[in-house]
Design brief:
Blueprint (H helix, E strand, L loop, with lengths): L24 H15 L8 H12 L29 H20 L3 H9 L3 H24 L8 H7 L8 H8 L1 H11 L26 H6 L6 H25 L8 H5 L5 H15 L11 E2 L2 E2 L5 H21 L16
Antiparallel strand pairs: 1-2
Helix pairs in contact: 3-7, 3-8, 8-13, 10-13
Length: about 350
């Protein structure tokens, strides 16, 4: 398993060996009991099948269809609207630290259906004890952000997620939070902690979480510096274009017909696919996309239109997280409020 959960003592998630690194005895006893009942293994270390399953869950972050829903795209991406003052480098660094906690929490908790399965084998008293323990464990995990003076910067949606324990969190909430690793990657790049962003068909590596400081967080925040506005603006334009491509495919999938417009026809546009082909050629010419495959955006070695449903949703989820984060960095969220960041195309 990747060593991305090596937090300092104040913020260790004592769900521990279930994910990899944390060795709290009380939690080990609870999980060992769970594993004996569910997997018929005597100790946590015997549960290789269990750990393999967790690795698979984290390696294939589940995609939920409603993550890419949104307003219909314009004919071509045109910008998200009103721009406000941009977040400072310190604000971006604080947001990166918060996202680290959010992602770690999402990845370190077992899937809700797994917890429900455990409860089927437990007595009512055991379920009650575990539920109470989960509440204390959850409070302890988030206490670190309070201690660092960062809790007031956690968004309302994130605070709502933080109020959920491994017993009460909904699957959608957990998976959405796990996808914030893509947002964290954008902030790492914007703050100069990584040099390049991977292609839009490549998911962020969880090992990136190791780069985010867990010690001297105050010093990291105060010394933070952002890339130039020009670099961030260009990255935002690219993200919006990829998001536009995702939403345009949705229109095509839904059987939407291009509006009957004589000006569009005069330009040779008779369908959304015609517009996609034009946009792909233009983007390749300008270097906005790396290449053009069958007059389409390149994704997973083929034309975007040929992605299967799972592939399309994966690329779409990567795209929306990058687009949201870059829009926030460019000042398009009202009052720089993270939860209200638009992702119009």
């Amino acid at each position: 398993m990747p060593d991305f959960l090596s937090f300092d003592g104040a913020c260790r998630d004592n769900f521990g060996k279930l994910v990899d690194k944390f060795q709290q005895k009380q939690r080990l006893a609870i999980i060992s009991t769970c594993l004996r009942q569910t997997f018929s293994c005597s100790t946590l270390e015997d549960s290789s099948a269990f750990f393999k399953m967790l690795d698979q869950l984290r390696a294939t972050r589940k995609v939920w269809p409603n993550r890419t829903n949104g307003a219909k795209p314009r004919m071509l991406a045109q910008g998200p609207g009103k721009q406000n003052s941009r977040p400072t480098a310190e604000e971006a660094a604080r947001r990166l630290i918060i996202l680290r906690y959010l992602v770690v929490r999402a990845l370190s908790a077992p899937p809700r259906e797994m917890v429900d399965g455990w409860f089927e084998h437990w007595s009512a008293d055991d379920v009650q004890d575990f539920t109470q323990y989960a509440e204390k464990e959850n409070e302890k995990f988030w206490r670190a952000l309070h201690d660092m003076g960062l809790w007031d910067f956690v968004s309302p949606d994130e605070q709502h997620f933080g109020s959920k324990t491994i017993v009460t969190v909904e699957p959608q909430e957990q998976f959405d939070a796990s996808w914030r690793i893509e947002s964290a990657q954008i902030l790492l790049w914007a703050l100069g902690l990584i040099q390049e962003l991977p292609p839009y068909d490549e998911m962020a590596d969880h090992d990136l979480l190791e780069i985010i400081p867990s010690e001297n967080v105050g010093g990291f925040i105060h010394s933070a510096r952002l890339r130039s506005r020009a670099e961030i603006d260009r990255a935002r334009d690219i993200a919006e274009l990829w998001h536009w491509r995702s939403r345009t495919r949705q229109l095509i999938e839904d059987g939407e017909i291009l509006p009957d417009d004589e000006k569009l026809k005069a330009l040779g546009f008779h369908s959304y696919d015609d517009i996609v082909r034009f946009a792909a050629r233009k983007a390749a010419e300008e270097g906005t996309i790396s290449a053009c495959i069958e007059e389409d955006f390149p994704a997973l070695g083929k034309a975007y239109r040929h992605l299967n449903q799972s592939e399309w949703m994966k690329v779409g989820c990567i795209t929306i997280e990058r687009h949201l984060t870059l829009n926030w960095l460019c000042g398009y969220a009202p009052g720089n409020r993270w939860d209200e960041t638009p992702t119009d195309t």
